[in-house]
Specification:
Layout (H helix, E strand, L loop, with lengths): L13 E4 L2 E4 H5 L3 E6 L6 H12 L1 H6 L2 E7 L3 H14 L9 E3 L5 H4 L3 E6 L5 E3 L1 E6 L7 E7 L7 H17 L1 E2 L10 E3 L5 H7 L5 E2 L10 E3 L2
Parallel strand pairs: 3-4, 4-5
Antiparallel strand pairs: 1-2, 1-5, 3-8, 6-7, 8-9, 10-11, 11-13, 12-13
Helix pairs in contact: 2-4
Bound molecules: benzoic acid.
The site of benzoic acid has 9 residues, from helix 2.
């Protein structure tokens, strides 16, 4: 399967954005970074998504995460479109850069092409892809979303997934279904009970299951 996915390193592409040109690795550095794509400028769902992403900037700042948008249209179009986005979502400021990719080179390498969507001239369109890149100097994709053009993303879920990644990286735990910040987390099955006692002196609770296998263990970190 071609294209960027979990565990891969982001290619160090030279990109053109409405805030200048740079190489992706220079932008990412050793920061958590979200790279997210949109089918096109001046389209309805995208206008709501970019506005919502801008409204969530304080949440991303709190988590020390950089944002980088991508839509195939050119920089001039991005700058015009930003006026619409900010008017539609009052109070928001599109402070993050948006990559332009009129030749559709970047989107192929970042695995952001929607195979089923074409624009009016028959050119390939972007999917709503989103890669969360880790801060570990490996510019490695830690999580990817891939939505079709018809489905706008939920930014609460983006923040929740980011919280899970950050929690898992810091404490070597995993987060269960529907987890949110403050909820108990689960201890990895690869950790023995003795190791768990040492790692989590605050204690943990093992769920009594019909199998009597002690693999579902919750703790608070
Ligand atoms: C939209 O952003 O609304 C959109 C863009 C391309 C295809 C379908 C919807």
């Amino acid at each position: 399967m071609p294209g960027l996915t979990i565990g891969d390193s982001v290619p160090n592409l030279q990109v053109q954005t409405n805030q200048g040109n740079f190489k992706l690795h220079d932008f990412i550095g050793d920061n958590w970074t979200i790279i997210f794509s949109h089918p096109g400028d001046f389209t309805p769902v995208c206008t709501t998504e970019l506005g919502k992403m801008a409204a969530y900037v304080p949440e991303f700042d709190k988590r020390e995460v950089k944002l980088l948008g991508l839509s195939c249209d050119d920089v001039k179009s991005h700058n015009e479109w930003i006026k619409d986005i900010e008017a539609y979502t009052p109070g928001c400021k599109v402070s993050y850069p948006i990559i332009a990719d009129p030749n559709r080179e970047i989107i192929k390498q970042l695995n952001m092409v929607d195979p089923d969507e074409k624009d009016s001239s028959g050119k390939q369109l972007l999917s709503r892809a989103l890669h969360i890149v880790g801060p570990d100097h490996q510019v490695q994709v830690k999580l990817s979303f891939l939505y079709p053009a018809s489905t706008g993303r939920n930014m609460d879920e983006v923040v929740r997934a980011l919280d899970s990644l950050q929690k898992a990286m810091k404490h070597k735990v995993a987060t269960p279904a529907n987890w949110k910040q403050g909820d108990p987390v689960v201890i990895s099955p690869s950790m023995s009970s003795d190791q768990a006692k040492e790692t989590f002196p605050q204690g943990f609770e093992t769920v009594d299951l019909p199998s009597k296998k002690e693999y579902l263990r919750f703790t608070n970190v």
